[in-house]
């Protein structure tokens, strides 16, 4: 692209910090850099016309782990590690709510439920028997019992009679959250260039040269917040994981309120605007879903539609309005990767399925790594 003198001077000269990715991590990183460096020139490069990964695609659960998920995590992590993971998520949600305010993100603490399928009796019984132990582990964070069991008041079918209930789980409006973050970034004089994919970068002693498909320029520090797309630019243990979602048309007298996890969290649904947003099914074909290409598969679509009709809304004739997908960044550990990669390059990636909760903190931690 043949840029003008003005474009080069105002956008691409004397750039102190360049962030790749305008998801929840990239935007929070930029806001914290602004706090730390009030006069710095901060630029975000984003490949999508809007943020184009997970942050504008997710289900908006403000959650920190269901009972079965925490029990399963205890098989591969120590008690201290699981405690720290939950604490980070709780602290992250607090930071998100403080940064933007509950009204701007439409935060509602309607509670979170975990449903166990009829065939998952063993898991159901394990959760019942370990509930007190998990509540004791989390007591120092909440000063209250987090998990209890509730009766099926919603008329769901093919599930065990009672559900795990988490009184502290909430939900947000994902679109409002991202719009508010983008607005805040603009207010703080952070420049964002959309539709610009970073293809590669190279480093010398004092700067990093960045190549996009439109232009090349230099920056003092580079911060990579590309999560599920990270392996295209850096060599870290993070893989893409696609998640498919559907939303129904508005449903009259919908009394399902809250966030719901089904089948060990592989499926999740919630109410929004009198509709049901329903996603999951990655476990049906992990290999195919290990991709950074957006899209749907018939296998996952069919299963989501079947569960919607047979389990979630068995008595209603509902129509599906829309499907979409998003790309997460996952690895063999739940802990995100926040680190300095070289003199002038840093990354904050691998947010898994918890980026609403931890994205603000990871963005802040990434910015705080940089010393100038
Ligand atoms: C369907 C779905 C449901 C989810 N539900 C929940 C939930 O309910 N609760 C929860 O806590 N979490 C949920 N998550 C996870 C959460 O959305 C993510 O963990 C979080 O959004 C990650 O934020 P991020 O900023 O790290 O990544 P992203 O939002 O993916 O941001 C990365 C950005 O980098 C850009 N980018 C990538 N490569 C380049 C490049 N080379 N050049 C320029 N730009 C580039 C991308 O376009 C993207 O905008 C869900 C995710 C999905 C997909």
TrEMBL record:
Pfam families: DAO (PF01266). Residues 16-369 form the FAD dependent oxidoreductase domain. Transmembrane segments: none annotated. Gene3D superfamilies: D-Amino Acid Oxidase, subunit A, domain 2 (3.30.9.10), FAD/NAD(P)-binding domain (3.50.50.60). InterPro entries: FAD-dep_OxRdtase, FAD/NAD-bd_sf. GO terms for cellular component: cytoplasm. PANTHER family: FAD DEPENDENT OXIDOREDUCTASE DOMAIN-CONTAINING PROTEIN, SARCOSINE DEHYDROGENASE-RELATED. This is Glycine/D-amino acid oxidase.
């Amino acid at each position: 692209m043949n840029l003008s003198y003005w474009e080069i001077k105002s956008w691409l000269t004397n750039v102190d910090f360049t962030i790749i990715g305008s998801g929840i991590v990239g935007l929070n990183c930029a806001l914290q850099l602004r706090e730390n460096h009030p006069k710095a020139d901060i630029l975000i490069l984003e490949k999508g016309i809007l943020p184009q990964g997970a942050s504008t695609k997710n289900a908006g659960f403000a959650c920190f782990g269901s009972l079965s998920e925490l029990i399963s995590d205890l098989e591969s992590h120590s008690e201290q590690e699981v405690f720290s993971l939950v604490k980070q998520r709780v602290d992250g949600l607090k930071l998100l709510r403080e940064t933007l305010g509950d009204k701007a993100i439409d935060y509602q603490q309607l509670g979170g439920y975990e449903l166990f399928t009829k065939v998952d009796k063993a898991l159901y019984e394990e959760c019942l028997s370990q509930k007190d132990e998990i509540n004791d582990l989390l007591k120092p964070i909440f000063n209250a019992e987090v998990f209890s069991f509730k009766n099926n008041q919603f008329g769901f079918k093919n599930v065990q009679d009672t559900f795990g209930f988490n009184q502290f789980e909430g939900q947000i409006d994902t679109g409002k959250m991202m719009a508010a973050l983008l607005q805040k970034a603009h207010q703080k004089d952070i420049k964002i260039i959309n539709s610009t994919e970073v293809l590669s970068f190279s480093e010398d002693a004092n700067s990093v040269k960045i190549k996009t498909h439109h232009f090349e320029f230099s920056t003092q520090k580079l911060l990579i917040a590309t999560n599920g797309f990270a392996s295209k630019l850096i060599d870290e243990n993070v893989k893409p994981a696609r998640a498919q979602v559907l939303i129904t048309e508005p449903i009259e007298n919908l009394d399902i309120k809250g966030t719901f996890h089904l089948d060990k969290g592989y499926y999740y649904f919630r109410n929004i605007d009198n509709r049901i947003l329903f996603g999951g099914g990655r476990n049906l074909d992990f290999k195919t879903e290990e991709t950074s290409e957006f899209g749907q598969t018939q296998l996952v679509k069919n299963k989501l539609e079947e569960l919607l009709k047979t389990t979630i809304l068995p008595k209603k004739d509902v129509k599906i309005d829309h499907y979409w997908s998003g790309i997460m960044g996952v690895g063999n550990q739940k802990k995100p990767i926040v680190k300095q990669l070289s003199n002038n390059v840093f990354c904050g990636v691998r947010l898994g399925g918890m980026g609403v909760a931890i994205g603000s903190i990871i963005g802040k931690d990434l910015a705080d790594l940089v010393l100038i």
